[in-house]
Amino acid sequence: MHPDLEKLVEAGKLKPAIAERLDQVSPGKFLLHAAWGAGKVIEWDLPAKKLVIDFEQQRGQQMDLQFAIQKTTPIAADDFRAKKVEEMEHLRALAASDPVALVIYLLESHGGSMTVDALEKELIGGVVEEAAFKKWWDAAKRGLRDNKRVIVPARRTEQLVLRDADLSPADALVGDFRDARDLKTMSKAIESILGDLSLFKADPAPLREMMAAIDDAARKGTRMQLGLALELMSLRDELIAAVDGLEASPDGPRLAQALASEENRLGPEIGALATGRQRAIYEVFPEAFGNRWVEAVLRVFDDVGTRGTAEIARLIEERGATAQLQEHLRSAIQRRALGADALIWISRERKGLTSGVFGPDVGAAILSLLETDHLADGPRKTTRLQSLLSEDKDLLSDIVEEMGVTEARNFARRLMECPVFADLDRKSLMARIIKAKPETAELVSGNAERKEQPLVVSWASLERKQAEMDDLLRNRIPQNTKDIAIARSYGDLRENFEYKSAKDMQKVLMRRKTELQRELDRARGTDFKGADTSVVNIGTIVVLDGPAGEVVEYSVLGAWDSDPEKQIVSYLSETGASILHKKIGDAVEIRDHETDLMKTWTIRSIAPFIP
User: Which entry of 9, 62, 291, 592 is 20 to 30 Å from 54 by CA?
Assistant: First the structure.
């Protein structure tokens, strides 16, 4: 106990329990503050009830004694956070020389576990420079996985966990499997074991003990988590093949049997797995389905992603069944039965394996799928296919190369009318078609006559749209770009939720940017002054009489000015369009939005709108 406190206790001026608490904030002790981080008490004035603390982010901070007791938490002098107050250079040197030791030290100071997010917050800026952190953390992760003292999660929001120091690397790997509570974690544990099989060369007994648990988990998971159960069985079989003396249980579930019995629901389940694991499962199809294995594997061809599709095609080619694959593709293309991933693969392989089926029908199938997806409810499924048309500079010219003039014109006309493309993209794609088929150029010049009509908008609504575009360009899109870069740094993009989420948001933002740009290009601002009131025009106030003596008044304003509560309607709305260009005395049909029935009104008066 601090000498000052001992004297007060001996003099009877301070109770021992209170003195013990005060001792935790005595000079030389370390504290943790939520905002300022760790700090060391430099001095105190007990009569004045004041402390002076050197915090990591706030040196020489004077605090009220009672406030310090309430708002800080005592930490040990050997705590990582305490070392940041006085021994930052030592921590920086440790980070440079032994990243693994630094992370273990940090985890020990946080009770043995913390998220990657929390670790990054603790280290960046002070211990590791922000610009160098990604490279440093990648190296640290490799070291941690080799060291086996720390369980490194796949996602940054999950916990890094410090293992018992007495565990050997082999025991740690087996322990990870035993601690796993779901099929995915079990599979990751087995993958780690497969990466360090040398640890079990002398004694494979721990792996034999795992077999029954793997079989039990796979058997139970087949119904509700078929894909993960197949993955687990595939990894088990790979482990058995790699380790001498390791055998499958006679009554354990077999991968081939599972594939045969669950044939009708294999596609989406296998498609959710990593590409390498998909390949291992496809290789079991001949055993599972015998002579009809090609037919069976082609049933999942369109449900397993572009990479899975490529693996199936490669397997079929290696087994000498390419003719069956090409016949399947021809039929599916003609029936418009292929999805985006299969069409992407066919397009990429058009100079190789799919050269015999690639042609005009592929182009028609691509446009059909883009149009269908555009009109469907829900998230778009063809964004990557649409991007391929723009990114692959030769794809369109290769599609129209074998077309006759009439067929090429029809294809070009359909592309020009396809609603998924922005104007600039459409012009760029048409330029490629014209280069390959000059006869289609007349379509572009003819289309110029059908230019979209301008949008009449109020200055206020135009400013709002411009502000949204400005926010999109200055803030939201740049931030999304940073989010994608950060998420990409977490690794393993196949199971990186943050990366997928950021990429999905990128699509939304880019689509919104295109929509706004198109609207702003057409917009023509106005203050509505000088509107012609001989008929209903933009910028007029219209009074209408109903059949039962009702009276309603509408202000017909710009394209983006609707405000139902104030009876303001856009001239493009259903109500606005129904009364536009009508004269006093004309009868008009307007939908009653409460009953959804059409009601007849008569225009009583037309007056100019005054802003």
Answer: 9
Which of these ranges, 388-402, 406-420, 459-473, has the smallest mean pLDDT?
406-420
Comparing 1-5, 477-481, 545-549, the range with the smallest average pLDDT is 1-5
Q: What are phi and psi of 113, to 5 degrees?
A: -155, 150
Residue type, 589: E
Q: Where are the domains of the chain?
A: 3-81, 87-162, 325-451, 455-524, 540-608
Q: Please state, in angstroms and rounded to a whole number, the distance separating the CA atoms of residues 137 and 147.
A: 15
Sign of torsion, CA 461 462 463 466?
A: positive
Question: What is the spatial distance between Cα 46 and Cα 89, in angstroms, rounded to a whole number?
Answer: 33
Q: Please state whether the predicted TM-score (pTM) of the whole model is above 0.70.
A: no
- CATH number for the segment(s) 540-608: 3.10.50.30
CATH number among 1.20.1080, 3.40.50, 1.10.10, 1.10.357, domain 87-162: 1.10.10
How many residues are recorded in the chain? 611
Helices (H), 360-496: 360-375, 383-391, 395-400, 405-417, 423-436, 441-447, 459-471, 477-488
How far is it, in rounded angstroms, from Cα 9 to Cα 5?
A: 6
The single-letter code of the amino acid at 122 is E
Q: Is 22 helix (H, G, I), strand (E, B) or coil?
A: helix
Kindly write down the DSSP assignment for every residue of 186-205, as one continuous string: HHHHHHHHHHTGGGGSS--H
One DSSP character per residue, 486-549 reads HHHTT--GGG-HHHHHHHHHHHHHHHHHHHHHHHHHHEEEE--TT---SS--TTEEEEEE-TTS
CA dihedral 388, 390, 394, 398 (to 10 degrees): 70
Which SS3 state, helix, strand or coil, does residue 378 take?
A: coil
What is the residue-averaged pLDDT of the chain? 87
CATH, domain 3-81, list 3.40.50, 2.30.30, 1.10.150, 3.40.1710 = 2.30.30
